[in-house]
Amino acid sequence: MYISKITGLGSYVPENVVTNDDLSKVMDTNDAWIQERTGIKERRHIKKGDGNSTSVMGVKAAKIALSRASLGPKDIDMIIFATLSPDMYFPGGGVQVQEALDMRTVPALDVRNQCSGFVYALSVADQFIKTGMYKHVLVIGSENHSGGLDFTTRGRGVSVIFGDGAGAAVVSRNETGKGGILSTHLHSEGKHKDELSLQGPSTQYWVPEIIEKNPQEDIPYYPYMNGTFVFKHAVVRFSEVIKEGLEANKLSVSDIDMLIPHQANLRISQFIQEKFKLPNEKVFNNIQKYGNTTAASIPIALTEAWEEGKIKEGDLVVLAAFGSGFTWGSAIMRW
Ligand code: UT7
Predict the structure, then answer these.
(1) Average pLDDT over residues 295-312
(2) What is the mean pLDDT of residues 313-320?
(3) Given 144, 262, 265, 286, which residue is catalytic?
(4) How far is it, in rounded angstroms, from Cα 95 to Cα 80?
(5) Closest CA to 146 of 23, 326, 324, 301
(6) What is the DSSP string of 235-291?
(7) What per-residue string of b and e applies to 12-39 under the rule 16 or more CB within 10 Å gives b?
(8) Is 192 annotated as catalytic?
(9) Is the separation of the CB atoms in 169 and 65 below 8 Å?
(10) Residue 40 CA to ligand 1 centre (angstroms)
(11) How many Å separate Cα 252 from the centre of its chain?
(12) Is residue 211's pLDDT more than 70?
């Protein structure tokens, strides 16, 4: 068995900054509410004509990650692309990356696990590398939320939270003998699938409905979230899956050097931090700047933490995610 390691990280967010005040001009919301409930100050939205899309942003993040891994697109053996907001219903973002980076005809796998997407994708990459099948896997999380949110007061409970952006990681066979992914832990509980969902477009809300009926009051084309319900489950599952990961490696909370929680809500991160009694410097948050970027949130945060020198060789880094499905997971890594 081989050990895998993240050898390159990259992120990209669109230039267009959307503040809470900007949102309050189009819906009944305000900066105080958004900051108090979520910690978010601003987020990035793709601007029409800026050339960005989910796959384009993914490619931009991937290029940075590849150069930091000192690899070219042709060195990659597999692409794993996590998103809930693909450019097209099908095919997914993986093949778009394969084309854009002129990669070999390597497999392109699309992961649809929403906020847990990056941890799921990382876990898949880890398995392929552990078995020796592949040497370098490109893992991308990218989201274009702004293209599909309800920016009227009706959608304010959801639309103020989400932002656009992408993060990428090159996961490689660890040739250094130092560090690597120790374990990953994945879960799901489909009975809560409706609580955070986008029901159309889908085979339930298919083309005839869109074209023939298109009723203004029909909302399955916008995401639905039972926020309080999701929040309550999130804090429990985050805690469980972090503990599960630590226990599997005979580690304890005091061994954590850096916890990177999926940036769902600053209050959720703070709840976990308090529960585990972790000091501020051991929990990384950037939701204040980007909102919740779903599958992109962990790789963007991981990239920034690393760029800011907050992750050093030998550190124990814990990633944890929870989201729609519900799905949740963690990854325990020695940097
Ligand atoms: O990343 C995937 C996982 N997602 C999550 O983990 C999200 C988890 N949930 C949350 O983060 C929070 O539940 C929210 C931030 C979404 C909402 O916060 P909350 O404290 O649960 O608020 P609420 O939904 O209970 O709404 C409280 C009030 C309501 O008004 P009334 O009924 O008390 O009069 C809402 O209509 O706040 C109102 N409200 C707003 N007011 C101003 C909801 N959204 C807004 C808004 N601006 N944007």
Answers:
(1) 98
(2) 98
(3) 262
(4) 10
(5) 23
(6) HHHHHHHHHHHHHHTT--GGG-SEEEE--S-HHHHHHHHHHTT--GGGB---HHHH-
(7) bbbebebebeebbeebebebeebeebbb
(8) no
(9) yes
(10) 13
(11) 25
(12) no
Pocket residues for ligand 1 (CB within 6 Å)? 29, 33-34, 37-38, 115, 156-157, 160-161, 227-228, 230-231, 234, 264-265, 268, 292, 323
Domain with CATH 3.40.47.10 in the chain: 4-173, 180-334
15-56 pLDDT, tens digit each:
999 999 999 999 999 999 999 999 999 999 999 999 999 999
The two most distant CA atoms of the chain are separated, in Å, by 60
CATH topology of domain 4-173: Peroxisomal Thiolase; Chain A, domain 1 (3.40.47)
**CA–CA separation, 94 and 287 (whole Å):** 26
pLDDT in tens, 171-205: 999 988 889 999 999 999 999 999 999 988 877 77
264 vs 322: CA distance, rounded Å: 8
CATH number of 180-334: 3.40.47.10
Chain segment 159-179, per-residue pLDDT in tens: 999 999 999 999 999 988 889
Q: Does the pLDDT of residue 3 top 70, yes or no?
A: yes
Cα–Cα distance for residue pair 143/231, rounded to 1 Å: 21
